[in-house]
Amino acid sequence: MASFRILTHPQHGTRAVKIGWSWPAFFFGMFWALYKRMWLLAGSLFGFIVLSSVFIPATMEGQLISNVLFLGLNLTISFKGNQWYASLLETQGYQEQAQVSARNPDDALAVHANSHKASADDTRHHEQGGAHSQDQDPWGDQRERKDGRGDRVEKDERDDDDKGDGGSGGKGGGNATGTFIG
Q1: CA angle 167, 170, 176 (to 5 degrees)
Q2: Closest CA to 99 of 18, 20, 7, 4
Q3: Alpha helices (runs of H) in 39-127, residue ranges in sequence order
Q4: Could you read off the pLDDT tens digit of each residue along the chain, which spans 182 residues?
């Protein structure tokens, strides 16, 4: 699992930027910078390539020097690239909201969205009186609920419906409109 910084912008949405090493930056340096729209970095890399081909002689020693310089440059970009990218986004108006652990940027955004939704639900639940709402007793057992038609359903009827036969509320059902992440 990797750590990601979650950055949001009022008009451009939310982005997840990995913290630490970047394999794409290591292998694709200048192209990675172009993809991330880091024009100054891409231009610097292109200039370094041109200057090294002009000033480093085409001998075995020159090739060794060139390889060592490019390796050092790729290592630097790999270690610092994501940090530079996050800084660039912050200069464009993005603000860091959180840091989350996830497998990839899409999962990081999903984790952040779910945690943000959960905290909003907790706040709403607290504002409505917590466990002392009209549908629950003080121990948290739900006594009755509304079915899809707005009618009250007693606990015994609900227990008969949720036998795990694949219905939407049973053990084998699940959320038909949600997305499984995990």
Answers
A1: 55
A2: 4
A3: 39-55, 60-91, 105-127
A4: 888 888 888 888 888 889 989 998 999 989 999 999 999 999 999 998 898 888 888 888 888 888 899 999 999 999 999 999 999 999 988 988 888 888 888 888 888 888 877 665 665 655 555 544 444 444 554 444 445 555 554 444 444 444 444 444 444 444 444 444 54
Per-residue tokens: 8? 């949001």
Q: 99: which DSSP letter?
A: E
pTM confidence score: 0.58
Reading the block at residue 5, the tokens are 């910084």
6: exposed, middle or buried (Cβ count in 10 Å: 0-12, 13-18, 19+): buried
